[in-house]
Design a protein that fits this description.
By secondary structure, the chain is mostly helical. The longest helix has 24 residues. The two termini are 17 Å apart. It has a two-stranded antiparallel ribbon. It has one domain: Nucleotidyltransferases  domain 2 (Four Helix Bundle (Hemerythrin (Met), subunit A)), CATH 1.20.120. It has 5 helices and 2 strands; from the N terminus they run βααβααα.
């Protein structure tokens, strides 16, 4: 089904753990922002979206791809007929970049960038939760 390797969602745990992880990552993003840890704000925003997209895929087909790319996850959702809300290209690019750079490279994100990404992520997850009902 998926273009990349997939992970069978553990049905014994249910799928809600993926949604819960997304919520936890979003909470951590907010806390990191409050503490001035802007790199971790972006990293946790990326993780929140990634977990929520994997939740939607698993809810629909019982599995999700082994990838850390939001872009790939969005593509896989489209492939199974789920139209997710658009994520602005600038936000997507920064989130994809932050997955690696926030942890492994000496790049610092500004407070303004972190605030924009945090707001965008909160809004995006809110919109994803609205389409969840149709899955």
């Amino acid at each position: 089904m998926f273009k990349v390797k997939y992970f069978q969602a553990p049905t014994s745990f249910g799928l809600e753990f993926l949604k819960k992880r997304a919520s936890e990552m979003l909470t951590l993003a907010g806390k990191a922002f409050e503490l001035g840890m802007y790199n971790l704000t972006l990293f946790n925003c990326e993780q929140a979206i990634q977990f929520y997209l994997k939740y939607l895929l698993a809810k629909r087909v019982g599995e999700y791809p082994k990838t850390h790319s939001i872009e790939v996850l969005l593509s896989e959702l489209r492939e199974i007929g789920v139209e997710s809300p658009a994520l602005p290209t600038m936000v997507l690019d920064l989130l994809e970049e932050a997955y690696i750079t926030s942890r492994y490279l000496p790049k610092d994100y500004s407070k303004e960038t972190a605030a924009t990404i945090l707001r965008s992520t909160e809004d995006y997850i809110r919109r994803l939760s609205e389409i969840e009902r149709s899955i």
